[in-house]
Amino acid sequence: MYDCMLDEAKLWLDEPPHRKRKLEPPPPLPIVDYSLPTTFSDSDEEEIDPVEREKYRKQVVESGGFDVDFFPVYGSLDQSGSTPSTVMLSKVGLHCYNFDKGTNLQFTSVQKANEEFASFTMYYITVEAMDPFSGSPVTFQTCVWDAATKSNESSRFITKVCRIKGTEKETSRWDHGAVDEFYKDDISWLEDDALTGSDKLQYYEVKESDLRDNEWLQLYAEVVMFSKWETDLSAYLPVKMKKVVVRTREDVETSKKLRSKNATFYMSFTACGGLECRGIIRRTTDGRPQHMSLQVNCWIDN
């Protein structure tokens, strides 16, 4: 699995990853130790017999990295558990699934999570979700790539697996070449004349009713702030949306631009505590099932 991921990274990266610019974080939150004890020390590797080694390999291959019982030092997977990162990326994976399937599965908790490291981090997360229509719990799996950043962004999250456990096979790797070229330039804030200029038909200022009916816009605001601080932001939620503008080249009615598979969202909002934020999320797809990319940038205005 490690070699496959490394090959994918080489295809993706043609320049060193940008370091995320860290501004002064919000007021300190309670410190939580998310670390987990290491299952194996360096000396334990010599004690692992071929049977155990094959067991590990088989678990990784058959479960796709989700269901692994132990994490030897020679393996590429590490146990993660419930952290701010796995919680956020669980919500991103659920959003991708809901967007594709027209469902509304809601995040409940992270059951377990594994990480794989190369020149980026791949998360394999098993989630307890809830179907609000039936009231039934659902075991959900998502694999999300916290990818290297380009295009003047602070974060890029790419979903590779988004499924109810046991229902769909894994898909192939993300195909950057299949993304519309229009969405590959640097992301930057909205031009002053965007809504009145020559490209005005590409834009839609989201109405108040649409803000209420599309709860995932609140998630996008959370993702925007997370891209800046990568910490638990529950003290700053929910946010109060001030303005959202969406841009897409897809030929759809104005009110349907929110549902475009490829679109850029310009958001201004006030977080709890009075934090004034602006953010951009560019949502793209390579046309393959379970795949979605969110490119993110954030500005703090006070």
From TrEMBL:
Superkingdom field: Eukaryota
Pfam families: protein_MS5 (PF04776)
InterPro entries documented for this protein: MS5 (IPR006462)
Annotated segments matching region Disordered: 15-47
Protein name: (rape) hypothetical protein
Organism field: Brassica napus
Organism lineage string: Eukaryota, Viridiplantae, Streptophyta, Embryophyta, Tracheophyta
Name of the encoding gene: BnaA04g21710D
